[in-house]
């Protein structure tokens, strides 16, 4: 069992920088939690406070119900993997992995150390490198050793601080899949820090999105994608970024419409239902629509935005069309290449006119003043 609970946790550095304000979170046993947000938002500081590598300025951190604020890192029963691997260059892979075990008191037997290291090496597929020094390994192999060194300790909580950010894109994807598999093999509690929203979405049971030392939203990947709590989360999760428009919400009979400078669109699906449930009246909103929820149509209609083609980014299976609306607003539309007929293909060059629409269930509505999602 290893739950982690943070209550009113705060970090003020010596230079009076408040890195983390009033952080509250209950992490369940065996949960995979990801802290995500732009650089400087306080992710690492929070992780380091859980690890005991950074003093806690206020609030409490509990592991399995025990307040650990004043416990040394070695007494917290956690394992941590760092971005820069932190391997000892003069030791072999075997000795790097055995290192934390050799520090244990009472002393661990050589047989036990051998078993634990070779077992971890097998899980990670690095058995054949055990006698090598770190400099004779690739970045991905070094990262596996760093994970192995954390694994051998039977820790209650596994902390990972940007473990993949030093790897090239291909290796990063591969290691991401390996971490998902690792999780199946070592069923413990994970807290993982990244600035990469794709890593957060693919790895996390729940994601904690942070900005400027404050939590913005805690939810499942699907939850933050479908119901982002505010404009920041909406823009941060999903790539390319969600498109935003100034708009008016209008109720006509029992239907809701959203009117922008460019067109009038009916709100449907869960979004329409939620508006009715909350009995929301006519009001100004910031409308958000994800690029992949926009489609091209052949002719101008009431529910289309007339756009001028600017840049066509060919991604193979899909296109990212950078368009400019009649009012000069820049939007991005993501279309599957396979969905395009010859007529559309003729219009995919600079300066051509395209008509874009989107379904009412794909809309998100934010308060232009507070930036909060009006339906969450
Ligand atoms: P993240 O991991 O999200 O990139 P950090 O937790 O590293 O962010 O940093 C959060 C804030 O605290 C930043 O403004 C950063 O400059 C500041 N900070 C981090 N470490 C220190 C330190 N040792 N002393 C002073 N300020 C720090």
Compact overview of the structure:
With 376 residues, the protein is an alpha+beta fold. The protein folds into 2 domains: 4-235, P-loop containing nucleotide triphosphate hydrolases (Rossmann fold, 3-Layer(aba) Sandwich), CATH 3.40.50.300; 236-297 and 304-366, OB fold (Dihydrolipoamide Acetyltransferase, E2P) (Beta Barrel). The chain has helices spanning 43-51, 93-102, 110-124, 139-151, 169-185, 197-203, 221-226, 231-236, 269-277, 342-346; strands at 4-12, 18-27, 32-36, 58-63, 66-67, 78-81, 157-161, 189-194, 206-211, 214-219, 243-252, 255-259, 264-267, 283-289, 294-297, 305-314, 318-325, 330-336, 353-358, 363-366.
What does this structure look like?
- By secondary structure, the protein is α+β, with helices and mostly antiparallel strands.
- It folds into 2 domains: 4-235, 3-Layer(aba) Sandwich (Rossmann fold); 236-297 and 304-366, Nucleic acid-binding proteins (OB fold (Dihydrolipoamide Acetyltransferase, E2P)).
- It has 10 helices and 20 strands.
- The protein has helices at 43-51, 93-102, 110-124, 139-151, 169-185, 197-203, 221-226, 231-236, 269-277, 342-346; strands spanning 4-12, 18-27, 32-36, 58-63, 66-67, 78-81, 157-161, 189-194, 206-211, 214-219, 243-252, 255-259, 264-267, 283-289, 294-297, 305-314, 318-325, 330-336, 353-358, 363-366.
- The strands form 4 sheets. It has a 6-stranded mixed β-sheet with strand order 6-7-8-3-9-10, with helices on both faces. A 5-stranded antiparallel β-sheet has the order 13-12-11-14-20.
- β16 (305-314) and β17 (318-325) form a beta hairpin.
- The longest helix is centred in the middle third of the chain and has 17 residues, at 169-185.
- The radius of gyration is 25 Å and the shape is elongated.
- The mean pLDDT is 93.
- It binds adenosine-5'-diphosphate.
- Adenosine-5'-diphosphate binds next to α1.
């Amino acid at each position: 069992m290893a739950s982690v609970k943070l209550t009113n946790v705060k970090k003020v550095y010596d230079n009076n920088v408040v890195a983390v304000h009033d952080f509250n979170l209950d992490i369940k046993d065996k949960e995979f939690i990801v802290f995500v947000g732009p650089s400087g938002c306080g992710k690492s500081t929070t992780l380091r406070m859980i690890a005991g590598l950074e003093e806690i300025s206020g609030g409490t951190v509990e592991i399995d119900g025990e307040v650990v604020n004043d416990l040394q890192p070695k007494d917290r029963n956690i394992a941590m993997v760092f971005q820069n691997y932190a391997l000892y260059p003069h030791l072999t892979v075997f000795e790097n992995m055995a290192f934390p075990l050799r520090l244990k008191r009472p002393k661990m037997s050589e047989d036990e150390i051998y078993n634990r290291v070779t077992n971890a090496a097998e899980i990670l597929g690095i058995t054949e490198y055990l006698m090598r020094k770190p400099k004779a390994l690739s970045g991905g192999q070094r990262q596996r050793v760093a994970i192995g060194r954390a694994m051998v300790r039977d820790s209650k909580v596994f902390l990972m601080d940007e473990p993949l950010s030093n790897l090239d894109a291909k290796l990063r994807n591969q290691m991401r899949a390996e971490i998902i598999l690792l999780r199946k093999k070592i069923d413990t509690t994970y807290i993982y820090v990244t600035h990469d929203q794709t890593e957060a979405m693919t790895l996390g049971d729940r994601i904690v999105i942070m900005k400027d030392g404050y939590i913005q939203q805690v939810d499942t990947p699907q939850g933050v994608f479908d119901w982002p709590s505010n404009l920041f989360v909406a823009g941060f999760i999903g790539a390319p970024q969600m498109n935003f428009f100034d708009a008016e919400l209008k109720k006509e009979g029992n239907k809701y419409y959203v009117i922008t400078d460019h067109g009038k669109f009916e709100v449907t699906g869960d979004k329409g239902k939620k508006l009715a449930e909350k009995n929301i009246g006519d009001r100004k909103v910031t409308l958000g629509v994800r690029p992949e929820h926009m489609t091209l149509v052949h002719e101008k209609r009431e529910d289309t935005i007339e756009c001028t083609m600017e840049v066509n980014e060919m991604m193979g299976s899909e296109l990212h069309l950078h368009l400019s609306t009649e009012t000069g607003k820049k939007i991005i539309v993501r279309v599957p290449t396979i969905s395009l007929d010859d007529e559309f293909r003729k219009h995919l060059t600079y300066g051509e006119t395209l008509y874009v629409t989107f379904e009412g269930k794909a809309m998100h509505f934010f308060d232009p003043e507070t930036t909060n999602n009006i339906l969450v």
